[in-house]
Design brief:
Elements: H1 8-37, H2 39-52, H3 58-79, H4 83-101, H5 105-140
Length: 141
């Protein structure tokens, strides 16, 4: 437990110390939020987090698809509005682990590679559309 303050000067020093600490953390928060104001940095953080969702090694992919895939599919089934959608996602949640246990590791590696390529293509597509949109705006201005 902390000792009680002996004088008003001790209180003033402690208050100044705490104010300096608060200002320091406030500046750090401003820098942190400044990163989110920049659209390019936000995009980079988003793609980095999306890529980190997908593991590099094959065993983890298999685990991800069997357990995580069935959980995700059953979650989609719960959120689905139509009965047919629920039935589809529920069936997928049961079939996915069964199918992936029988999948050849080389095929799984190819699937993982293609998923990565697809993300790259989607990112390039959006980047290209943005550049075209900016070029049209520059021509109109």
């Amino acid at each position: 437990m902390r000792e009680p303050f002996r004088s008003l000067a001790d209180i003033a020093r402690e208050r100044e110390r705490l104010d300096a600490r608060r200002r320091h953390h406030g500046q750090r928060l401003q820098q942190h939020y400044g990163a989110f104001r920049d659209p390019a940095r936000r995009r980079k953080m988003l793609w980095s987090s999306v890529k980190s969702l997908f593991p590099r090694d094959l065993g983890t992919w298999k685990d991800l698809f069997t357990t995580g895939g069935s959980m995700a599919a059953s979650g989609f089934a719960r959120g689905s509005r139509s009965g047919g959608g629920r039935l589809f996602w529920l069936g997928l949640s049961f079939a996915l682990p069964f199918l992936l246990k029988r999948t050849d590791p080389e095929n799984l590696r190819n699937m993982a590679h293609e998923v990565g390529n697809s993300f790259d293509r989607v990112r390039d597509y959006f980047r290209k559309r943005k550049e075209e949109r900016e070029a049209r705006r520059a021509e109109q201005a």
